[in-house]
Amino acid sequence: MVLQNSGRYRADTGQGGDQDNQQDDASSMSAVKRLERSQFTDEMDARFGFERMKEPGEKTGWLINMHPTEILDDDKRMISAVDYYFIQEDGSRFKVALPFKPYFYIATKKNCEREVISFLSKKFQGKVAKLEMTPKEDLDLPNHLVGLKRSYIKLSFNTVDDLIKVKREISPAVRKNREREKSNDAYTAMLSSALAGGNVNATEEAGSSKKMSDQMDNIVDMREYDVPYHVRLSIDLKIHVAHWYNVRYRGSVYPPEIVRRDDLVERPDPVVLAFDIETTKLPLKFPDAETDQIMMISYMIDGQGYLITNREIVSEDIEDFEFTPKPEYEGPFTVFNEPDEASLIQRWFEHVHETRPNIFVTYNGDFFDWPFVETRAAQHGLNMYQEIGFQKDSQGEYKASQAIHMDCLRWVKRDSYLPVGSHNLKAAAKAKLSYDPVELDPEEMCRMATEEPQTLATYSVSDAVATYYLYMKYVHPFIFALCTIIPMEPDEVLRKGSGTLCEALLMVQAFHANIVFPNKQEQVFNKLTDDGHVLDSETYVGGHVEALESGVFRSDIPCRFKMNPAAFDFLLQRVEQTLRHAIEEEEKIPLEQVLNFNEVCEEIKKKLISLKEVPNRIECPLIYHLDVGAMYPNIILTNRLQPSAMVNEATCAACDFNKPGANCQRKMTWQWRGQIMPAGRSEFHRIQQQLESEKFPPFFPNGPPRAFHELNREEQARHEKKRLADYCRRAYKKVHQTRLEERVTTICQRENSFYVDTVRAFRDRRYDFKGLHKVWKKKLSNAQDSGDAAEVKRCKNMEILYESLQLAHKCILNSFYGYVMRKGARWYSMEMAGIVCYTGAHIITQARELIEQIGRPLELDTDGIWCVLPNTFPENFVIKSSNEKKPKVTISYPGAMLNIMVKEGFTNHQYQELVDPASLTYETRAENSIFFEVDGPYLAMILPASKEEGRS
């Protein structure tokens, strides 16, 4: 028998923020209720085709979903597991539960591990299933590069509930011990060493001979306690949604074997239902589910449309009709005219039972469609959760165990790159599906239900069509492509921020490199600067963006150019060098294989000399966009930037590699910007003293007033800042001062490269998928020419698959930079973010300085330049070679000219790579993967003078 909390029982401690409350609810729920709920969930899953594997055997299935659950082991004890939901090639379904012990790590003072293990096994007897010592790579450990590992105690549990309870007991002790450690400075350590007669072991023995009751004082750190349970299992066992697996079940005594099948690539077609509702409403009011009714439910299931009408509101029967806005978006609709709202809802529930969708699609369904249907169903004595398994979770989102809910609005907001004003369904359909959807004034809809029911029906189904095709064309391939690399279920991959997805990926890479995860970054309250001012906020100066010109630029309308002859002299001296770099570095062709190198050089020189001789001219322009390909990821890779590599003098002093001539410390500049309060340290301390003598409102109504020390740290900081702001306003006539500082940070070029390797793997894999996308695009073209319908469908599916995979990789690749500045990030580094932006801004600024002398820059964005160059400027040149793979390549001179500049100014000559881990031998080389790419020439460009969207 399986006990399960209907998919709601999540170990999502650090992601949702309310995990502890969820776990409290789960643990306080009586065994009977949990049993009833789990039985209902199993029934609902079975109703939708997901029967649990009960007989020994082997099946091959495509993993579509996963949920944390609880099952009974052979001793009738409850243990945590994850339910995996599979679709087979013939469309049949099954699920299987995989038990796995949740765990976290603790670190102790040196040589106290055994005593702490003994103490914990007695204290938490019956809760902790297993205690073991595990050596882990800890990137915070001084001198860890020489192979030092930190010993962690791994606490494993039978259930997530046990983990939460034990974590809650250990957490306050860890916090207290860490505070105590911070207050003990180096002198205290030296003094204790001296008191022990200089014998280090004496202090260790003193620490380890503590009474058993004091062993909590020896626990100094706790790691990986907030990794969601299903994510933990996916990371450890490499089980990701949207892959094919062989599932072998050998009975309840053994855990099932789930083995990935990488040879199977094509995805099955899950049953997708996209729906939208139309409701009554009072004039100038928003629909209220308590009093208003559902007039129509329109929905599409796998391309077939259905409309259910409520004849209490709609004045006449609607006949079957078709709504096909474009030939590729077919919409044949079957209509059910129901006598009243109760029949309408019942008919929809019955159709859901009949078709058993795997995926429900809405547009803003979390906050309108689902709650409205739920409330109206309840008014008629129907329970939506009992009928189709959907209910609201603790985040206010509607989810079920047996099906996925995809709210397309979440994709539009995070991944569509549409402007904020275009996030409604009509605007998204217009931008992404390229047709104008039917629009009606909401105030007219109730009238139209009586007077023009057919028009209202057309409007209703247009929303369902738009939602369905928007999902099928963009959201479905993209989200399931992300699922192949992110250890989360599809609901979460759609709804989480890109920083959370990025962190999940880094956790996967860190685990498989045996690196212990850092804890989430904690907020420091009322931090003081070195000169004693309270820091209100701090950040770094971001990328450089500048609008230089406005107007209409066309390639057939001449422009005036004023150029600098000296710039052409500079370019003339470097023609051979520029071309050599483009051929050897970018195209990877040895120079000796090039057949027309000198001819091309002469042709370029001829054009440059012509421009130099007449620097002031009126000429038709070449309109170009010169942008750096994947700029921020490539800056990270070139300079080996990663949060753990940002080091200071103390870190380097403890490192064995810190020797003369080591060349492993790369110093890079960035700009820090802080908002500080003008009051000094003494004034701040005086305000703190005043607050300590005051009383504050009680925690509970009618409770006793609280002293300052009884408030939590956040409340204390809030009162301190408010009082300090009031004081500064009176004494200094201002609350804030902005301070800009140029800072230099040292980047360790030998740090464990798991972060950099993750970024590189993603970049390279994206290029692989782009290549495969081109291959299948060509195959699709050939299949269309041959007229083979089955092959056309297969090629189209593969083309969409690889296009979505490369887009998913692009989305994550661009998140690695922003993630390091995300609040609460595990791998947090303001210095790294600042260095990336500062370096990027310098690359663009230097490129702009050159373009200003040979053309006209129009606009700078963070990673590129829009510019116009004279029509006679050297443009594209064909290089002929004896290379069989590349007999002809086209070199863009504007791009090559900027790339040689980047190579000279931004190459990292200190890049070090570990070539022999046994002898700790590093190889030093020059690294530069920052390259400009040329887009254009364009026929025209319009640059508005307005600073605001929608204003001329």
Automatic annotation (TrEMBL):
CC annotations in GO: epsilon DNA polymerase complex
Primary subcellular site in the record, as a coarse category: nucleus
Pfam families: DNA_pol_B (PF00136), DNA_pol_B_exo1 (PF03104)
Keyword terms, alphabetized: 4Fe-4S, DNA replication, DNA-binding, DNA-directed DNA polymerase, Iron, Iron-sulfur, Metal-binding, Nucleotidyltransferase, Nucleus, Transferase, Zinc, Zinc-finger
Any coiled-coil regions, as ranges: none
Region of interest (Disordered), residue spans: 1-33
Catalytic activity from the UniProt record: DNA(n) + a 2'-deoxyribonucleoside 5'-triphosphate = DNA(n+1) + diphosphate
Signal peptide coordinates: none
UniProt keyword Transit peptide present: no
Cofactors that this protein relies on: [4Fe-4S] cluster
Gene3D superfamilies: DNA Polymerase, chain B, domain 1, Palm domain of DNA polymerase, Ribonuclease H-like superfamily/Ribonuclease H
EC number from the UniProt entry: 2.7.7.7
InterPro entries in UniProt: DNA-dir_DNA_pol_B (IPR006172), DNA-dir_DNA_pol_B_exonuc (IPR006133), DNA-dir_DNA_pol_B_multi_dom (IPR006134), DNA/RNA_pol_sf (IPR043502), DNA_pol_palm_dom_sf (IPR023211), POL2 (IPR029703), RNaseH-like_sf (IPR012337), RNaseH_sf (IPR036397)
GO biological process: base-excision repair, gap-filling; DNA replication proofreading; leading strand elongation; mitotic cell cycle; nucleotide-excision repair, DNA gap filling
Domain called DNA-directed DNA polymerase family B multifunctional: residue spans: 797-854
Gene Ontology molecular function terms on file: 4 iron, 4 sulfur cluster binding; DNA binding; DNA-directed DNA polymerase activity; nucleotide binding; single-stranded DNA 3'-5' DNA exonuclease activity; zinc ion binding
Function: DNA polymerase II participates in chromosomal DNA replication.
Name by which UniProt lists this protein: DNA polymerase epsilon catalytic subunit
